[in-house]
Amino acid sequence: MSENVINGKQIVADIRGKLKEEIDLLAAEGFRPGLAVVLVGEDPASAVYVRNKAKACEQVGIYSEVHRLPAETSQVELLELVDKLNRDTKIHGILVQLPLPKHISEDAVIDAIAVEKDVDGFHPINVGNLSIGKPSLLPCTPAGVIEIIKRTGITISGKRAVVIGRSNIVGKPVSMLLLRENATVTVCHSRTENMKELCREADILVVAIGKPKFVTKEFVKPGAVVIDVGINRLEDGTLAGDVDFNDVVDTAGPITPVPGVVGPMTITMLLHNTLQAAKALRA
Ligand SMILES: Nc1nc2c(c(=O)[nH]1)N[C@@H](CN(C=O)c1ccc(C(=O)N[C@@H](CCC(=O)O)C(=O)O)cc1)CN2
């Protein structure tokens, strides 16, 4: 493995170790953070992510419960469960795994989660607070991306950052967070002209476009930090990021492989958010 390949295992172990220490202290005082995860339907990838979230909670001492509902669950039934969890005092964080079946409005469900328990950071009030720089629960993948970049040792302030992708879950919030860190941010998307040229100016390149191996070395300034948020399952069953890792690795500076870094960091930031939410609700 080249030296510039970011070691996700080490970062995740470090952060989870610190979370566990803090959670153990709270537990000694008789207080335990609690997370409820809701999974509707049988999407196999979502089932894996939910299982991993429950395992990660156990690892750091967070109480967790998983609500597995059939795909035919109605929106009303799901909203009733969210309402119950909003009022449950042993639950400090609520996460409804996305995507939801087509007949359920994701917006309606996200809007129904209590803002202070929205550990996904997807509620419009948390999104609004992020965009105006007020403290809020931050979306897990974008917060994880910023943490990974900081741990490379580079200073984000003043750097040119390019984000490929403008989704509500990753592209937009990661751009806001980079801006908050005083980067000069450009957001590229499917209609962007001269994308390669723009990307080649980036000191930090974050890729979340959902197209396997889209970014090749022609997009990358030598030495740039490259963070790959894509998780694409190929026909042969293997996973690939949005970055053509083998093509880019010798040009980039610190670079994230897929799998192994951004995904596990997403879950780690969920643990972090659950602890933050629990402390705020306890105060
Ligand atoms: N309510 C939410 N739904 C979804 C989110 C989210 O943040 N909140 N993000 C994604 C899925 N996701 C978290 O839920 C997620 C995706 C991937 C991983 C991960 O650890 N990936 C591994 C590879 C795992 C595999 O073998 O498939 C890796 O990258 O190393 C964690 C979480 C959409 N839905």
From TrEMBL:
It catalyses: (6R)-5,10-methenyltetrahydrofolate + H2O = (6R)-10-formyltetrahydrofolate + H(+); (6R)-5,10-methylene-5,6,7,8-tetrahydrofolate + NADP(+) = (6R)-5,10-methenyltetrahydrofolate + NADPH. CDD domains: NAD_bind_m-THF_DH_Cyclohyd (cd01080). The keyword Oxidoreductase applies. PANTHER family: C-1-TETRAHYDROFOLATE SYNTHASE, CYTOPLASMIC, C-1-TETRAHYDROFOLATE SYNTHASE, CYTOPLASMIC-RELATED. GO terms for biological process: L-histidine biosynthetic process; methionine biosynthetic process; purine nucleotide biosynthetic process; tetrahydrofolate interconversion. Homodimer. NADP(+) binds at residues 165-167, 231. It comes from the Bacteria. Pathway: One-carbon metabolism; tetrahydrofolate interconversion. This is Bifunctional protein FolD. Its EC number is 1.5.1.5, 3.5.4.9. Residues 139-280 form the Tetrahydrofolate dehydrogenase/cyclohydrolase NAD(P)-binding domain. GO terms for molecular function: methenyltetrahydrofolate cyclohydrolase activity; methylenetetrahydrofolate dehydrogenase (NADP+) activity. Catalyzes the oxidation of 5,10-methylenetetrahydrofolate to 5,10-methenyltetrahydrofolate and then the hydrolysis of 5,10-methenyltetrahydrofolate to 10-formyltetrahydrofolate. HAMAP family: THF_DHG_CYH. Residues 6-120 form the Tetrahydrofolate dehydrogenase/cyclohydrolase catalytic domain. The gene is folD. The keyword Amino-acid biosynthesis applies. It comes from Paenibacillus oceani.
